[in-house]
Fold:
Amino acid sequence: MKRVLSIEDSALEKRMQAIIKSKYVLYIIIAILSAIAFVWIYGIRVLDPTYTEWLMRGGDLTQHYLGWKAYRMSEWMLPLGLTDALAYPSRTSIIFTDSIPIFAFFAKLFSPILPDSFQYFALWGIICFMLQGVLAARIIENYTKDRLTIIMTSLLFVFTPIMIFRMFAHTSLAGQWILLLALEPIFSYQKYSGNKKIYALICLIGVLVASIHIYFVLMCGIILVGVCLEDVLYFKRVKRSLILLVIYFAAVCVTVGIWGGFSSGASYAREGLGKYSFNLNALFNSQDGWSCIFISLPLYGNGQYEGIAYLGAGCIFILLLAVLAFISSSRIKNIVRAHWREAGVLLLISFLAVMVAVSPRITYGDKVIAELQFPEWMIKIWMMFRSTGRIAWVLVYVVMLCAIILLIKLFHKRMILTVVMFSVVLQVYDLHGVISILQDRFGQTYEYHSALQDTDFWDSVAGNSEIEHIVFTTQMEKGALFAFTDWALSNHKTVSSFHFARVDMIEQDLSVLSPDNLYVFTKENQSECLKYDLNYYLVDGYIIGCLQNFENSGNAIDIVALMRKSWTFGDNQYVRNGEDIQGERWLYEGGYSYGPYWSVTSGDYLVTIEGENIQEKAQIVIYSQGGNLHHDYEVLESTADTFVLSLSLENDVEDIEICVYNTSKSSIKLKSIELQIR
Structure:
């Protein structure tokens, strides 16, 4: 009996040892450590799926959240990624709000059982951290079996500045683990050389990149060129390489089509190529305080933040040590002879990534090194990825992996572990200033306060089932746009326009007014209200127009009275040889008053100028376009203290000026200038 127990105990012990040595246990440990790193930086509060207020801080993070919110509110459509809630009646794709389509789809699928307030962005974030560590480990374990070394090197990838920079900024772009997944076949080609796993892997990558962010399509496409070239160099398999390329681009196109990327009717932006590019100093440029050790280096223009590729002090230390160890090693020839194919492939994809990233304008620091010329068709394709600096992330991960692998090959196991542990500590210390800012930003509970504070009015609109759409009559400031959109989606209404990524804004047709629309005017375009026969309400600093009459609202306004523009003086603005004294404008000999650059619509107006001694001494000129266009008027009344003019405008005017010239040797006084629709 004792012998039987002994045999069973021995078998159990062997089984436990096998489990402990299993690579899956290693991956679980790395995933846990990566998740702890995420919580350390961003806190635990954001992981609450019902806590959505932190996503309303503004900027791209709010765009991503509202994109998901609109997609959730919309009915199911074909293709599956379309919503009509953000540019009604047009349909737009969830791709163009960078809301991580694959997560949005599954969240919408389970929407009936999810709480009303729900977000998946923190879940995406912690998964990105875990996959970043695990997929780095999958590559490194091909070169060392020391588990502690694998764990420590994986943490270097978790604390990569380029990933942390994107997390909860351009949130979907934090999914840089997809680049490690794509790079794995190059660093572990033997794993896929004799089987068909590579086909499934490439197909999976194609689906994922199109389901996360379009920029990853280009990055992984460049890496795939390297995968195929390596296959040709080692095994002469040209046919298989071509099949892999076809599989990848077919998977991308089908997936983009499923998400509605070809069906939104939106046009791609055509500006910015060369502005958001990669600077040749980027690997060592800490940019805006990302390092506590290295200073920021000069950049060319204000858009090259997109090309941030700072390695971090820990990775820079490993890179320099690897270079020194390599050039001083007696094994250089053997290493090159054994790995020239992989080295050639990695050099090629790094070169391609950098060439795309720098754009046609190559810069180093604040200097332009060269301006390259390319065919127009190539420029048009390039413009689709105008933030080209991002493509250099391929180079960042190639450099990190190569430096670590070189050290593993050249250093003793105990030595490499010491170096890597020191590098992780150095990397975290180098980034601790930024990490501290992120801890303060996301670790505290954020309370969102909407710009729409007139709850009585907005509750009355929300309760009106006939009002279904919010129509913006002009381009809105982003904060206001997000506030209106959040309110509309929370009350199951649509908006006519939104801030989309990589596409132009949708233009509005206001030729036909509808009773189910609420029209939003700003102070800048309030004169447009005169074009439309609507009931108007002044709410939260905006003019709201509607065919319906909200009789119980105290916000109703007389739009004609509101359009009365009056200019009183006091700030000495728009005056020559004169001055403002106690709210009155004095014009001395030869002096004149101009401005105030009002924006008015076409129509008939009365201009009233009040002052003293102006009848015989003042000359009135009305013009726009900086004096290039003069407008005729008729004098209706002229006294010593008042001028009343009749002005007819055939077209809208953006910058009308009413100029008063003092043509006498004595001073005249102006009290006010008023413009009123007739």
User: Anything to note?
Assistant: Residues 25-89+95-101+120-443 form one domain.
